[in-house]
Amino acid sequence: MTQRARATLLEAEHIVGYTTYIDLIPDDVTEAADELYDTPMCGEVSRTEEAVDRALAGNDVAIVGSGDPNVYALGGLALEIIESKGATASALDFEVVPGVPAAQSCAARVGAPLVNDSVSISLSDHLTPMADIESRLHAVAAEGFTIAIYNPWSRKRRENFETACEILLEHRPADTPVGVVHGAGRDDEAVEIVELGELKSLGETDLIDMTTTLLVGNEETYVWDGQMITPRGYESKYDY
Amino acid sequence: MTQRARATLLEAEHIVGYTTYIDLIPDDVTEAADELYDTPMCGEVSRTEEAVDRALAGNDVAIVGSGDPNVYALGGLALEIIESKGATASALDFEVVPGVPAAQSCAARVGAPLVNDSVSISLSDHLTPMADIESRLHAVAAEGFTIAIYNPWSRKRRENFETACEILLEHRPADTPVGVVHGAGRDDEAVEIVELGELKSLGETDLIDMTTTLLVGNEETYVWDGQMITPRGYESKYDY
């Protein structure tokens, strides 16, 4: 958590969020708030609406998430709801407090897998059609991007994961390193570096579920001493 | 700065970095270190080598950057240098401390421009051939990605910026919103939301230089009340 996020939460009168994320906030921060409002997953719209209503009533409200508010998160939804209620962001002193995206916190756990031009893609087809997701995967896998994959697997979308593995294998060798980070920062955290060719079979294990982030290397990525390394390209410019 | 980054720097005996970034660290943190070692820009390899040598000599060394060590930064180079010296990451207790990438800290300043599948691309052809950069821009601009552009302009690569603007305009309407964030967090910070069609002409102004990050919206991104909003797609799923 950034120092700014902590300071913002300490100043907030109401803290609103998904129950799991509220539970991850240190006690001294939640105890400083007048009110906590948490709801389970899938209540994003009603929860954010509640947060905006409380702000419109004159309270200083913080909506919490787990990574950055711009990465598959509620920054935009909050603005859309403010707009739909005929209020303005400026009147509410609306601000987005940036954070560390899962791509970055998970990448750090396997070394330096991203480094160069990189892309984040979610395999959830809840809000984006699977045809678009497939087309995006083809486009970036064919170029040299490293790829962070969010929401890789759920019981309802087992096929999306398998399709994604197949698309990646059309463009990249089977021995391409893939960092698999499950439950980063939680009690059930597990980290492994695997090969792209074996990724699909891991969909049947506990390692890959909705709390997992995958970090797919590019053709230059290699594994050394338990670390994934995507060279930045300095070695072609300098002798060292 | 995250709380973990601050704690890590406070524990470090030596802090190594680009002069500008060392200057941005709070005084109480730098004063707690035994030694600071800073060099100007372009000394990345020799500076990182110096950091690794100091660690091999038994010191607790922190290499600092301005965003996240995986985003156009030195995480990978540090590992490559450790490897080249015949040492190991595990023997040195090497770890990457994640941070907030410029894409996120800049996006927060213009609202919620990224939100969905997103890509980071650098226009610097110092370490990546311009032909690859152009091909990547075509690939992602043709899909629905929001695009964070790093290193958009320098006197030596004015043409790269102009070419990038032209490629984006081949795939997206001229009124596509673009967030322009210059010198985020510095004294000369400037933030504007412009249209893609006018972006190229801004290359001749002080707003766009090597400290600027550009946030290019997708076809759904709009501007409201001074904020850039890329809808996450909830509105198609729910009534609110």
Automatic annotation (TrEMBL), chains A, B:
Residues 1-199 form the Tetrapyrrole methylase domain. It comes from the Archaea. Keywords: Cobalamin biosynthesis, Methyltransferase, S-adenosyl-L-methionine, Transferase. It holds the Pfam family TP_methylase. Pathway: Cofactor biosynthesis; adenosylcobalamin biosynthesis. GO terms for biological process: cobalamin biosynthetic process; methylation. One of its GO terms (molecular function) is methyltransferase activity. This is Precorrin-3B C(17)-methyltransferase. It comes from Halorubrum coriense DSM 10284.
